[in-house]
Amino acid sequence: MNESILIDGLRRALTLIVRGDARVLEAVAVSVWTAGTATVIASALGLPLAFLVALRRFRGRELIITMLNTLLALPTVVVGLFVYSLIRRGGVFGPFDLLFTPWAMIAGQVVLALPITAALGQTALSSLDSAAGETALALGASPARILTTIAWEARYGLLAAVAAAGGRLIGEVGVSMILGGNIARHTRNLTTAIALETSKGEFALAIALGMILMVLALGINFLLRRLQGRREAA
Amino acid sequence: MSVRATGLVKRYDDATVLSLDELTIDPGGVHVIVGPNGSGKTTLLRLVAGIERPDAGELKVLNESWRQTRARMLALRRRLGFAAQKPYLFRTTVRKNVEYPARARGMSGAECAKRADAAMERLGVTHLADRNARTLSSGETKRVSIARATAVEPELLLLDEPLANVDVKYARVVESLIRELAENATTVLVATHVQDLAYHLSAAVVRMEHGRLTPPAIENLLEGELIDSDKEGEAILGIDGGPSLEIATDRRGRVRAAIEPKDIVVSVDELHSSARNHLRGTVTALEDRGSAVHLTANVGVPLVVTVTHQSLVDFNITVGSAVYLTFKATAVKVF
Predict the structure, then answer these.
(1) What is the pTM of this model?
(2) pLDDT for A87-131, tens place per residue?
(3) Longest Cα pair distance anywhere in chain A, in angstroms?
């Protein structure tokens, strides 16, 4: 019985993908747009933080590292709840009317991804031979050039941090559900659509969405493995 | 002065790794710091290069201090060249590595390429130009790091163990490059643990042990010209301003050489022995060193000899005595 549902679902799912079903394409678009934007923002904020924590010694540095590592394991629903409390009507950011918009999802996903880009970026920079920066310094590089040199030397590790953040965001459901509200063509992404279609008994659609999500997640993880391999080889 | 250090101290955790009362490196020429591993040579070079900061004392590099504005420190760094003991090559091509200091100095792309080409050519790494620098052997890495340090013709070049891991053929190349640069207004400061290499490169050798300067362990350091002798495996060393010695070597040309004080025999009359060198001179100084006496005799150049107290008494040798110094051709070590 179960097997026949799965096989039947797979067959119909392939048809939906090949035909370019609108519901499938919309969910893909929302997923890629929100997770992609959030990854870019989390990288723009998290990687400079990674540089600061990895290369400078200041009061509170250890605390930041501990916090980042703790936040890495934060459940997505907790992040969703936290951001919800900020952007709901009556919350600090209530007047911006963000709740149940893609931007609310992006905000929550940034909170989710920031510790990943910052903590993994910091690990990548800290594991880089200190001789890299010293060599740039001794060869007469300006402070800005020293930073770009260090970023270049740690590039595989930094890109792996970005890929890990993207991988986490494409597959998360808690933040998207709580902050996006699962509104069709607006905030319904792959994961919330799968949850909905499964509960409706629309297995074929759910499986089609799941297959696409798997391909995306696999692609990101494949990239991640390659970057880590390069980093170890270099 | 190229380098002047006064009361310079560097500590790691609580261990003092460097403590120099006074060190001066004059401008121009090759200068060598020699000492065993862990003697503080690398720390000294890193302080001079401005990579590390001293915990105490004064350090002037090219008459400038490292305690000044960022802009002036950067300007000072750009007058230096540095090749580390364990060089770090950037994760890119050899060419980009060698171009790096020229790019850091804002030179044009064409100028960077020209300088990199010349530097790679000199160090024999041109064929590696497009290779990933992280895939080189340790000897190749060393040569690329020296090419990189010399591409911008620094006023002060700091080389930490420049010949470590470099094979014999390229060791000669590096040596001649060091000499060539020193003749062209670059002051070269080399750190090495190999005493023979130190004296081979320069007579200006300072010795370090346990983070401190110690007196050179070498006595009777001579400079001169090696010319052919009529005997196989031997040569005549014409010492600058001094006598000629018969020595056992295949080398020719200008060299530095030394004779151990304990390998020289002092006598009042000329000895008839198999030793090839008999020099007549006058005792100019006697210095008591506990169990032995350091006798200095002028034979055209001053030579130090260790003798026992009893010998001085037996032969009635005092300052002003005429003596013969006798030593074998093999007692003269050529660097």
Answers:
(1) 0.83
(2) 999 999 999 999 999 999 999 999 999 999 999 999 999 999 999
(3) 71
Q: What is the CATH number of the domain that holds A165?
A: 1.10.3720.10
Q: Print pLDDT tens along chain B (335 aa).
A: 899 999 999 999 889 999 999 999 999 999 999 999 999 999 999 999 999 999 999 999 999 999 999 999 999 999 999 999 999 999 999 999 999 999 999 999 999 999 999 999 999 999 999 999 999 999 999 999 999 999 999 999 999 999 999 999 999 999 999 999 999 989 999 999 999 899 999 989 999 999 999 987 788 999 999 998 888 888 999 999 899 999 999 889 999 999 999 999 999 999 989 999 999 999 999 998 888 899 999 999 999 999 999 999 999 999 999 999 999 999 999 99
Per DSSP, the three-state class of B256 is strand
DSSP string over A49-66: HHHHHHH---TTHHHHHH
> Which domains are seen in chain B, by residue range?
3-214 (3.40.50.300), 221-334 (2.40.50.100)
Q: Are A53 and A122 in contact (CB under 8 A)?
A: yes
Residues of B in CB contact (< 8 Å) with A are: 49-51, 70, 74, 77-78, 80, 82, 84, 86-88, 90-92, 100-101, 104-105, 134, 148-149, 152
Query: How far does A66 lie from chain B, in Å, by closest CA?
Result: 25
Structural domains counted in chain A: 1
The residues, any chain, with a CB within 8 Å of residue A9's CB and separated by 6 or more, are: A203, A204, A206, A207
Q: Which residues of B touch A155 (CB under 8 A)?
A: 91
Token pair recorded at residue A219? 């692609």
Judge: B152–A145 Cβ closer than 8 Å, yes or no.
Answer: no
Handedness of CA B257, B260, B264, B266 (dihedral sign): positive
Chain A residue closest in CA terms to B147: A139
* Interchain pair A139, B90: CB under 8 A: no
CB spacing of B90 vs A152 below 8 angstroms: yes
- Residue B214's nearest CA partner among B31, B21, B1, B29 is B21
Question: Which residue range(s) make up the domain with A78?
Answer: 2-233
Tokens matching residue A136: 């740039």
Q: Which stretches of chain A sit within 8 Å of chain B by CB?
A: 129, 131-132, 134-143, 145, 149, 152-153, 155, 234
Q: Indicate if the pLDDT at residue A234 is higher than 60.
A: no
CA distance B49 to chain A (A): 6
Distance CA B165, CA B148 (A): 17
Q: Which of A131, A140, A153 sits opposite B78 (nearest CB)?
A: A140
